[in-house]
Amino acid sequence: MLRCSICVLDERFSKIELIDGRYICRECLIFIKYPPDYDKMLREVEEVLSREGNNYDCILGLSGGKDSCVALKILVERFRVKPLAVTVDTGFIDEVAMDNCREITDRLGVDWKIVKENFIDIYREAFERFKSPCRKCSRRILSILRLEAVKRGLNVIVSGHELPFGHSAIRLMKGNVKLVRILAPFKMRESEKEKILRELGWIKPELPGYTTNCLVIGPAIVNFYNMHGYNFEIERIAALVRHGLLERKKALKLIEKPKIDEKLIKELEKRGLKLEKFINDLRDSLLCDDDQDN
Ligand SMILES: [Zn+2]
Fold it and tell me: What is the reported pLDDT for 285?
């Protein structure tokens, strides 16, 4: 199977062409032809983020994962605005990620609010239909954050997503609310983020898949993989490589079928997500004792 030599997409996901002896996908060719203007993105973000002098300037969606925690630090220390950090508790956030939210808001002196709303219907449906839960989940989180902003008369929501919306870090939502992907202009590599996180006292949860907060995504990837033969995160991971945010070698590992342990399945069941129907398929991917080296 042909695979792009720049990102990790193979011919199932993109047209792969041979150019000067290298296989390159369509997405990477477009990216090379029309590269993002990171300085322009930064100017746009600077324009939107300003200290108004009243209570809060914006809402920051804090998931406890690495990106939103780095985003909070940049927001406070680089842009010097006053956010309210809001964590939408889906019922399936790792406890370590919750501790990270507490620790980091505390260290940065940021007010923190938790909005509890159980997302089990989205996750259950994803398992039943062998789909990715990510789009529906993030859409619901955004709508909760937007309502929180509107309720407080705020019109900016900041998220820790690192990929821009096409060529901009900002998207306009319903009701004139602006969604700012604050990390997009910074083009920050994993190692830089890790350094910032270490200084913040952030602890990495042990979770399968490319996540540092969500309990569902690893088993959901395995379930999807068993049916479709690939990882539903491949396009996002390929984009991270294309943008120079993730090493290709690491990405090739991340698009493999993750390994999950019995403990995680038990934890999901404890939280109400019964996986008996899928358990044998999922169990194929359980870690063996001699395989727990990472
Ligand atoms: Zn590519």
Answer: 61
